[in-house]
Design a protein that fits this description.
The chain has 189 residues and is α/β, with parallel strands linked by helices. Helices cover 43% and strands 20% of the residues. It has five helices and nine strands. The strands form three sheets. The protein has a five-stranded mixed sheet with strand order 5-4-3-8-9, covered by helices on one side. Helix 2 runs parallel beside helix 5. The longest helix has 31 residues. The chain is globular. The protein starts with a helix and ends in a 6-residue tail after the last helix.
């Protein structure tokens, strides 16, 4: 009997070690994920490829305010709001750059291509991609849902972040919010 008990205890110790190692790996991964960026933080830069393999980059601090829009072609709210955001960016022209980040990835690039064609999107759209188990653009921004819009001033500082239906609030007040960038105002999230 003592041999059987030792084997069972040994099996329990091995199983506990495996579970502890797995739990520590999960904990480390969870700690690496961050909440949505906040006003006053330095915006992360990124470089992605578009549906045709061309570079779409965002370099914070380039001197021009930028609205970074994270979206999915399979998100109904995105399908409604992304064309409005693109239209706003087009109207602002010289005073605001708009960059789209599609979270569907290369696998769904044809769906993204169709959506761009249907809606006439003009903003550059990069396809977010995984690198070392993290998304290149959306994870450093803490994006958890789509659509998410982040306004970055010309110095590369986040001035506001809006998710899902709050983007309607941004669009309603967008002219005043963007004008506030020149004064140094920080909009609420």
């Amino acid at each position: 009997m003592p041999g059987i008990v030792r084997r069972r205890i040994g099996a329990v110790v091995v199983a506990a070690s495996v579970l502890a190692a797995a739990a520590s790996g999960v904990g480390a991964e969870m700690q690496a994920l961050r909440p949505l960026v906040r006003s006053g933080e330095k915006a992360p830069g990124f470089s992605l490829k578009d549906i045709d393999g061309k570079d779409v980059s965002f370099r914070p601090g380039s001197g021009k305010p930028t609205l970074v829009v994270f979206w999915s072609v399979f998100c109904p709210t995105c399908k409604e709001l992304v064309p409005e955001i693109d239209g706003y960016g087009t109207r602002r022209g010289a005073s605001l750059r708009t960059v789209g980040v599609n979270l569907d990835g290369k696998r769904f690039s044809n769906a993204v291509r169709s959506f761009r064609k249907e809606t006439g999107l003009r903003m550059p759209v990069g396809l977010d991609d995984l690198r070392n188990d993290f998304f290149i653009a959306s994870d450093p921004y803490g994006v958890e849902k789509t659509p998410t819009a982040v306004l970055v001033d010309g110095a590369g500082v986040v001035r506001g972040a809006w998710t899902a239906d709050r983007i309607r609030e941004f669009l309603t007040n967008a002219d005043a919010i963007v004008a506030g960038l020149k004064k140094g105002d920080s909009p609420r999230k």
